[in-house]
Amino acid sequence: MAEAHQAVAFQFTVTPDGIDLHLCHEALRQVYLSGLHSWKKRFIRFKNGVMTGVYPGSPSGLLVVLVGYMSTTKYAKIDPSLGVFTKLSKHLPISKYVTEEGQRVVGGVLIGTGLWIAVTFVMRNVLKYLLSWHGWMFNRHGSLSFKTKIWLYLESARPLMDDEQYKRMEGLAKDFEKNMGPKLQWYLKLKSWWASNYVSDWWEEYIYLRGRGPIMVNSNYYAMDFLYVIPTSRQAARAGNAIHAIMMYRRKLDRAQIKPVYLLENRVPLCSAQWERMFNTSRIPWLETGFPLEWYFGFLPYSCFSCQCLTLRSASQLMVLNTIPMCSSQYERMFNTSRVPGVETDVLQHVNESKHIAVFHKGRFFKVWMFYDGRLLLPREIEQQIERILADKSEPQPGEELLAALTAGDRVPWAKARSQFFSRGKNKQSLDSVEKAAFFVTLDDTEQRYDAENPVRSLDSYAKSLLHGKCYDRWFDKSFNLIVFKNGTMGLNAEHSWADAPIVGHLWECQTVINSSLKVAKALADDVDMHIIPFSEFGKGLIKKCKTSPDGFIQIALQLAHFRDKGKFCLTYEASMTRLFREGRTETVRSCTTQTCDFVHAMMNNKATREEKLKLLKVAAEKHQDLYRLAMTGKGIDRHLFCLYLVSKYLGEDSPFLKEVLSEPWRLSTSQTPLQQIDMFDLKRHPELVTSGGGFGPVADDGYGVSYIILGEDLINFHISSKHSSPETDSHRFGSNIKQAMLDILDLFHLDNKANNK
């Protein structure tokens, strides 16, 4: 085992003649290279910190100001120091040490620098206030009052209640608005003045980290590979290239060289704060030994990305492209972050250094170093390490194969087992090897791929494998798992709380906990009803010809499909980003509106004319777009109500209104997967490189989870999930209803699909 081969930098023994020192030259060389690399990284970070700190000013701008100022004062025959040195000379013996000409130069530099700082400060604040205006998304602008938000909630709840229920809720809202609401609002205003974001920290803690149920299916989500193209069917080659590409991406993040993401067809950059924990991240709650195989090839330690936001790049892009930058603070947790389980709440653990990855294959865990002699391994070199793992025929040690099931079950048993078995010794070292890895890789021994001859079954199987696998072959606490299947197809499983397992030899004491977690996880995984629809009848191109927002069109179709599926409306969640704001994450768009319900009723009424239906559709689509804009610009209601509820709990006061608002289940949870947020390749020239998108599990036991991705002009992929145990839901049935609803709405416009596609 690798633990038996420990390398030391030097050894010494005490002899009668003194201390005999033996140096290991190779070890010292590695120490030197490691230090050199570390200082290079620190210099790059320091430089980026300076450049970001003085934005929108720049060192070159300072030089221009100084040269211009000194030249102007010299030409005008004015003292550059503006008399500063004359005044100082009365109190300090400056003239003894600095010549008169030197005094003028130093004084000019000081005054010029002060002028540059003042101009930069003014520009910075002007820019800040300009970017805080989001009226470009609206025909109107203005903040929403507390009272308005309360009544916006009532508006969203109206189509889901009968008259008696609504009257009761209206009474609760009026009482809350008059009595408890203003007091809670005062505390939130106080927090907004003090904190960088009054929602994000509480949202992360209470919505994600305090959840005690399994994060597999319930929280983690997945992302698929290219839909039509697989570069190679060789598992090791695909893994080697993908791992190298991800590590190169991490290096660019470390150096703040990644372009920001843009909103509105790559014209407005999005906050990338959530990316910071994508890599080197685990969600944590280990035993008494290490890995069966660890690859130690003398690879040089590599320092991973630390908390360096891309504010500078975003801001510089702003000046060039005249666009609006988004907060980038979440980038720092993309790497080296783990979710650590606790009895009451989990915590996110982020480390600054990570020079290896953790790999799982056939029940065994491997630690693979990514650097040698100060350089990142080449794709072929990584491929060779993967080939050695695939060729290894050793059996898992007792308990090792199922160990990752601890991350798939309930959080409390995992937290207790972690504290009892993984808090010291080799068990802790083994756990650290997984949790402090750059990311986790699973070499899956199954084959998954989109099959054009059987698209539904192939994609359903592919999605279920990415969402939960075998429940013990994914480390669900890690920020993300890169999953490479036997036939070269890839995918991701990502832990949601952030925008993992060593082997154990003496594991019999922990077997009960592992088996219990696996039982819970398998029951949850077996209950998932997953269905993928490659909807190719039409796409974004034809929807735009209807002069309707594609997202609004799809959301209204989902409401029509759901009503046909269940015969009723339900509270609907659509995720909207709020990354126009510092550390912004998401807000809710309540897609089930009175206007949408009116349209659905008209579609179900055979007596309603086509013109009436079109008119109602237009009103519903405009309403949806307005709600989406409100959510994006910080005027949504759900995060505000959530924070008000937390304040009421901190104050020990009970609000019937807030309690009822936050207890309502989201029986239809939806999200649009953005396509190609970063310009890595040209999809217009290479449409075959589109991804299949990703998805997530249902939020409610009797509800649906729907993720959709708009691929080019003529394809939309829907990812639908529900639970077999619910008699009310059926993912395949709902998929058929979605397809029919899309076609029925398009038919209102009397467009010839084929003609328009041509």
From TrEMBL:
Keywords: Acyltransferase, Fatty acid metabolism, Lipid metabolism, Membrane, Transferase, Transmembrane, Transmembrane helix. It is a multi-pass membrane protein. It comes from the Eukaryota. The chain crosses the membrane at residues 50-70, 105-127. It is found in: Membrane. Residues 153-287, 509-740 form the Choline/carnitine acyltransferase domain. One of its GO terms (molecular function) is carnitine O-palmitoyltransferase activity. Pfam families: Carn_acyltransf, CPT_N. One of its GO terms (cellular component) is membrane. InterPro entries: Carn_acyl_trans (IPR000542), CAT-like_dom_sf (IPR023213), Cho/carn_acyl_trans (IPR039551), Cho/carn_acyl_trans_2 (IPR042231), CPT_N (IPR032476). Residues 1-47 form the Carnitine O-palmitoyltransferase N-terminal domain. The keyword Membrane applies. One of its GO terms (biological process) is fatty acid beta-oxidation. Belongs to the carnitine/choline acetyltransferase family. This is Carnitine O-palmitoyltransferase liver isoform. It comes from Labeo rohita.
